[in-house]
């Protein structure tokens, strides 16, 4: 039967859709047909009618349509409440990219209603007086909680939520496998999430058995293998959601998809230094099917052994050729032996082999130094490589064997990790054996021989040039019986402690390249090549020195200019060490600049400096020449010089020029005259000094001591007990005679201290101390001497104690003079008034002169009015009192004559 | 915004640690003011819409001004302000505890609708506050202070019945809005609770200067701050 169906909207006459529906019908059968309206049915009344026609080939044409049925009305609005605004469809599920029609029904026509898709105002189409429709095209997924569409009139907004689903993807990488031949596991990649809370369903259908199962996971499904020995499976995976159904199929052979479960209990057994047995277990597959297991042995992360073993339940394999004391990792995986498809997961186990004695002798070298004729040997050895230690090295044994004394054997044990030891020997020949020991035993011995006498060190040193690979060097063998060669060097610069390095070479080798990561450009390395004899004795063969790469000198010498003359000077830099430079010093450049800017001297050449200044340059091509004479210079000229060494890599850094000014041409002549003159003066002065006593004796003889006079002895010889020398203390002066010498009178100077002009205006006074009474019972009159050594300033004082005395003048009591206070006052005043004016015509008494015996024959006695000879006379030593200082209070016995004022620092006798 | 969020997170963390500390020790702080301050801070934290409402709005796409504007607290979802003020301290604590207990149940029912992190945090906050409510109630029970049985502000009526859980519509759009209203009500309720708790502190401060009895009498005579609401408490009888 064919049914023609018509659908109208709002009014029966407005047909919006016509279609046919064909089906086979039976009697009393109820048919179902559905039609989906793009406009929610709640928003419009729909009408439907149909007519039918027989559509059977058995019935001949013409065939006729039946009459139309009456219109049937579908009115969803009846079920709505009395809200003023409704929006439809509610909670519609749509697929991303599809079109959706949303409508609202407004009961209040006066309302101004605005509708929004999310935040965006949307304009619709009015379908009826109260119905508006909004067509949303190509709708997209926004969020899992749905896309909001809402309209607002007067009250609360009304809206709908559209649940947009992403398009369901076809499952990818669909495959199945079994781990135990009992359960199949099929896996797939479901693709992107559809974004809905309702997840798509996944169903696994097997066409041979026509069984299906609903998968519990979205990417995996388990299938129980039946016991009917079904080997082939045709699986179809169907992914389905509200909108779509996607499917993918595979044909699967059960035997070809066995992926065994990982083995377990992997353990090492009977681990020795070189062997270990590994055991493991596997999960059985099916009826104890055979498994192919792969056992891998890894050392330092790399697979070093791999073995395939076929097993059923338990696996076991002996690993051999292992290294002692080495950590290994064993790992195992298995696959189905009947048909390999996939390895199981790996399991692994670490184990370490047992220790064994070191397999190789340590590489030993020595450094011999002779101290006081005795060799001191420093033995060095390199740590054995891990391959050869076979365990932790605990100590090194050093056996020193004296070859000259058969029974002499000395054993030293050096704990690890030391790599050197020092042995002091005597002048015998020795063999030294070094062995490395671990917990199991010793290594083979390494032997060096030491001669008791220094070998030939006078070997010429050759130069070598370093390359990128190191220092290539070669040598000429000296003997045909050499058992090998050793090249020795220090790894660091010369100024650092030597880290002795060596390289052993075979007997047929006559050249090698010494390379080291420690080699640096600009560092001089010294190499010594030894030939090893059959007796393990080392003989120095050659010396080599070189730079890996020569650099320009890093600093310049400290140049000292000397021998400066008006035409030349000498530059010297003898302290500059050429050995410790950054390259072989080939010579020096001497730069010279003169203010005058004249032409360069002979041997110099003009050059332009980096600062574009021009100067003269002299090249010294002898590195040992460390002086340079700069000749042919101009007197009284300024020269600037600078010396820098140069190597094959260039010259030293440009430093500042130093200045030298040549002296005047005649200055040396002056020196030649002045120096001898000074010398002569000095000679004269020294001669005068040496002859001063003689001069003194001639010019200033000492005043004789009356007590030591020969007269005394003469008198004593006459045995006259009454005749004696008068003590001045016993003299009581009773008169003072003042001799006023007229101006211009002759003055006798006792020294050169006062020039005649200085003394011209003075009034020297002579003070005679004479008895004032004729009945004076004292020993006799005293003789007064003039003393010119007194303070001249004091002589100008007019004071009671120093008063002018005349024979007629009233006697001034001696009190002022004898009293210490008065004397001090006098002195003070004297000093204070030393610069004061002195009244003219006043005769000053300023000194109580020395007393002397007239027999002394003093030639300096005043020429005027010499006193009469007296029996009692005395000369008393004068005391020097510095000016300004008060004299000590005189004792009762002290006499005035004992006090003398002297200039500071001067002493006259 | 990030700084605020960080501050909130830190505050939340501190409060949680405090809670955990108390829960772990099983002891309540005996210091009233400390406990009150903690309650106030917890209420302040929970009244902040950014802890729950904002994440919900963002998740559901309700951030347009129209929808946010319609997301208002619905009367009856939570106890009103005047009711809270008129409750005695003990009744207030009971009401607060009961209301939050109901809200906690609602949160469990809204698992599908709420962001998971925000929901879990809100649950933790509520449980923390509940613990402090328990401690405060214990403290008040043990105190002889008559204020404990006195309303924060005098007013009529016994303890109101706890609010019931809202019926959520089947229409997803309406449901979204209804949950939004409910969460809005929760935050506003917590704000009101915080104000009441601050009222406790203020009153305590005032009454320190007066005898408790006089304070009680004065409280009874105090002018009702909401003239629109009738005082229903019978004269001469102190409310609970």
TrEMBL record, chain A:
Q: Where is this region: Disordered?
A: 883-909
Compartments it resides in: Membrane
Tell me, in one coarse class, where this protein mainly resides.
Answer: membrane
Residue ranges annotated as transmembrane are 669-690
| Keyword terms of this UniProt record | Disulfide bond, Glycoprotein, Membrane, Receptor, Repeat, Signal, Transmembrane, Transmembrane helix
Bilayer topology term: Single-pass type I membrane protein
Where does this protein have compositionally biased stretches of type Low complexity?
892-903
Domain of life where this protein originates: Eukaryota
Which SUPFAM superfamilies does the UniProt record give? Fibronectin type III
What InterPro entries has UniProt attached to this entry? Answer: FN3_dom, FN3_sf, Hematopoietin_rcpt_Gp130_CS, Ig-like_fold, LIF-R-like_Ig-like, LIFR_D2, Type1_Cytokine_Rcpt_Type2
Family recorded in the similarity comment: Belongs to the type I cytokine receptor family. Type 2 subfamily.
Name of the protein in its database record? Oncostatin-M-specific receptor subunit beta isoform X3
Gene that this polypeptide is encoded by: OSMR
From TrEMBL, chain B:
Compositional bias per record (Pro residues), positions renumbered to this chain: 153-166
Annotated coiled-coil positions are: none
BP GO annotations: immune response; oncostatin-M-mediated signaling pathway
Q: Where is this region: Disordered?
A: 143-168, 202-240
Q: Where are the transmembrane segments?
A: none
Q: Which InterPro entries match?
A: 4_helix_cytokine-like_core, Leukemia_IF/oncostatin, OSM
Keywords for this protein: Cytokine, Secreted, Signal
Q: Which GO terms describe its cellular component?
A: extracellular space
The superkingdom of the source organism is Eukaryota
- Signal peptide range equals 1-26
Cite a single GO MF annotation: cytokine activity
Where it sits in the cell: the answer is:
Secreted
Recorded hits in SMART domains, A to Z, give: LIF_OSM
Q: Pfam family of this protein, just one? A: LIF_OSM
Protein known as: Oncostatin-M
The protein's gene is named OSM
